[in-house]
Design goal:
381 residues; alpha/beta; 5-stranded parallel beta sheet
Length: 381
């Protein structure tokens, strides 16, 4: 009888150890549970089963008890696992497996091997350059990052006020970015400037907007400002009262103001080369090529998606920023909206859409890539 009990204990021990190894090798459990907790649970189960097996040699009851213990243990671990995903477990649990899953989906996109678009950057040893197109909602994201850095005391993040005078000199601009410290976040209206550094990762991001809406918003923003800025009176010498008059008169307003706003998007994505100061097919092609060097280029109306994607692609640098957005949502609402806009006439709308065909081509190209990335990273499937 003693030999039979020992044999049963040996068999049960082997089975329990095999089940333990299976759990420890599981990636999902390994991300959320300390291995010692699993060992403790399985050891307790082994003691209960072996003691009962020694005293009661009814194999049916022993087998039933053994199966019950294994099932209950597995159910317990699964429930703990789900709570950790929902944030109901310990607040100190790491969630890198969640980001790893998102990144794996992102890598399914059919990008060239040299493309940085949609590629994750792990760690905090990086700098973020946000060369924002005017009136595309970039100040909302800048405000969010600044509040996030202060409230959560993210010492590795350093936000900068970009010196706008550097945009006229490409050498000074490049030198400024080359000497930025690790963790820097810079938002400003500056042309795309490629920086090659071995000490830190350089992350580019941007936002675009429907060309018609962007141009109209830019025109009236300079005239009326918003809740944060005053009208730019010094720059209004050529402005007409409405954008309809500006275009219809074909005078100084059209040649100086409209043409300037027209080139804003391409001037941000093309760079500082002389050709980038023109509105042409060549400028469009350069902007498309440079788009592959960005981590993400979003759309103004997709702010929530942008925040989620940036958290997924920069999992250590912006960890938890999506949840933090809810805390400052009221502060951002309407904060940077242009104070007044005059709806354009139908003739004006038709002219602008026809005149901005190249920018619309770039807009559609960028939005196609963004929608693919959004689907890959944020889809529930």
């Amino acid at each position: 009888m003693c030999c039979l009990a020992r044999a049963l204990k040996y068999i049960l021990t082997r089975l329990l150890l095999r089940d333990l190894i299976h759990h420890l090798r599981s990636r999902s459990l390994g991300a959320f549970f300390n291995g010692f907790k699993v060992v403790k649970i399985m050891t307790s189960s082994w003691r209960i089963v072996t003691v009962l097996a020694t005293r009661f040699l009814n194999f049916r009851y022993v087998l039933l008890l053994f199966v019950s213990v294994i099932i209950l243990t597995n159910c317990f671990l699964i429930l703990r696992n789900r709570k950790s995903f929902r944030g109901e477990g310990s607040p100190n649990l790491e969630r890198k497996e969640v980001y790893h899953s998102l990144v794996t989906k992102g890598n399914r996109l059919e990008n060239k091997t040299t493309s940085r678009y949609g590629k994750p950057v792990v760690g905090t040893n990086l700098i973020v350059l946000y060369n924002a197109v005017p009136k595309t909602g970039s100040r909302n994201f800048d405000f969010l990052v600044r509040e996030y850095q202060v409230v959560h005391r993210k010492k590795y993040i350093t936000t900068h006020i970009f010196p706008q005078n550097l945009t006229q000199d490409s050498k000074l601009l490049k030198d400024y970015f080359t000497h930025l410290r690790s963790g820097s976040f810079v938002r400003g209206h500056f042309p795309f400037t490629e920086i090659k550094r071995n000490d830190v990762h350089v992350v580019y991001m941007n936002t675009i907007r429907d060309p018609l809406q962007r141009l109209i918003s830019n025109y009236y923003y300079d005239m009326y400002g918003d809740n944060e800025t005053y009208p730019r009176y010094r720059e209004l010498q050529y402005h007409e009262k409405t954008i309809d008059e500006c275009i219809s008169k074909q005078g100084d307003c059209f040649n100086n103001v409209y043409e300037y706003y027209k080139q804003q998007t391409f001037s941000m994505f093309c760079g500082s080369a002389p050709v980038c100061r023109t509105y042409s097919r060549e400028t469009l092609e350069i902007a498309k090529r440079n788009l592959e060097k960005y981590t993400v280029v979003s759309e103004t109306a997709k702010f929530d998606s942008l925040v989620s994607i940036m958290e997924a692609l920069l999992p250590d640098y912006l960890k938890g920023i999506k949840t933090f957005t809810k805390r400052v949502q009221k502060q951002m609402k309407g904060r940077f909206h242009t104070s007044r806009k005059v709806p354009p006439q139908n003739l004006t709308v038709a002219f602008i859409k026809r005149d901005l065909q190249l920018e619309y081509e770039f807009y559609d190209f960028a939005m196609k890539k963004f929608r693919q990335l959004e689907t890959a990273l944020l889809s529930s499937g």
